Amino acid sequence: QVQLVESGGGLVQAGGSLRLSCAASGRTFSILTMGWFRQVPGKEREFVAAISWSDHSTYYADSVKGRFTISRDNAKNTVYLQMNNLTPEDTAEYYCAADRTYGATRDYQYHYWGHGTQVTVSS
């Protein structure tokens, strides 16, 4: 089992920045990819970004390219999501996910999920 705990969400004005963190524990040696998804009530969960645990490959949704950066610290078993130039459309519950599937960008590919952290961007 892998446990994931997100932190770093909050309220920010449009144009501002936030950095989300996701700490993994448990059988972390089994992780190949960690990702971030977001969800707004009434809408489907949306892929945001993912990173390979082995070769640093990164993947981004078109809506966040150039604004968000995913990174990871293997020693701390932690993945980060730096979010810059935030807009109200980025308001959502953000979830961290992990799996053994390399390069996963679909939510059904992920086996482990955190409980989420709320990001609210005011206009």
Detailed description of the structure:
This protein is mainly beta. It is 0% helix and 52% strand. The chain has strands at 2-7, 10-13, 18-26, 33-39, 46-52, 58-60, 68-73, 78-83, 92-99, 112-113, 117-122. Strands 2, 4, 5, 6, 9, 10 and 11 form a seven-stranded mixed beta sheet that branches. A hairpin with a 4-residue loop joins strand 7 (68-73) and strand 8 (78-83).
Tell me which oligomeric state these chains represent: single chain
What sort of overall outline do the alpha carbons produce when their principal axes are compared?
Answer: globular
Order of helices and strands: EEEEEEEEEEE
Q: Could you report the average pLDDT, rounded to the nearest whole number? A: 95
Count the DSSP helices: 0
Straight-line distance between termini: 40 Å
Strand content: over 45%
Number of strands: 11
User: What low-confidence regions span 5 or more consecutive residues with pLDDT below 50?
Assistant: none
* Share of helical residues: under 10%
Biggest sheet descriptor: 7 strands, mixed
What Rg do the Cα atoms give? Answer: 13 Å
Structural class: mainly beta
